[in-house]
Amino acid sequence: MTKAELFQYVLNYFRKTNPAPVTELKYANPYELLVAVILSAQCTDKRVNMVTPALFERFPTPFDLARARFEDVYPLIKSVSYPNSKTRHLIAMAKMLTEQYQGEVPADAKELQKLPGVGRKTAHVITSTLFHQPNLAVDTHVFRVANRIGLTSARNPLQTEKQLIKYIAEKDIPLAHHWLILHGRYVCTARNPKCDKCGLTDVCKYYRSLRKKSEKKSVI
Fold this sequence. Notes:
Shape: elongated
Helix content: 55-70%
Distance between the termini: 31 Å
Oligomer: single chain
Strand content: under 5%
Largest sheet: none
Order of helices and strands: HHHHHHHHHHHH
């Protein structure tokens, strides 16, 4: 099977099993998604969704958040990972968003990365989710799943991104981001992957390696 055929097989499987994937972060507008994605760095979406309702009730717009003090925001997000730095990032982001972008979330990934707390991954999540741009965000799930299946042979997220978009049609890139994340979150988990529940074992490089190890042990 060629690399192109492997991609086609995997994407067709995801398309059949999950035709309309969406982010699990809860948000009502671009500002809320931006805040949620910043909070989700090295933190679960489930935890973020637990803290954002109170945060958005207290600071419903970036203009409200821009006027906040550290001690106003920190107690509301202290249960997420790295709450100190994220508190500072959120307030600084809101100030810049209101002062330089009139409170509107930029649709350009490079502009987004100028905001405090926003890196390449966050910018790509925002632009693909809100504006349906062909920007692929690579987090730990995408990195792990792509390498395990054999879609990539990358050593870092940027290499993974470049190798993936080479074989994925632009219209499918926003979908592929969610497909790979959700597969990594619920099936191809970091520890004890649920290979018995996976429909990709016929083409998965990682599964083949597991079978070979098992066969060697049985021979011994």
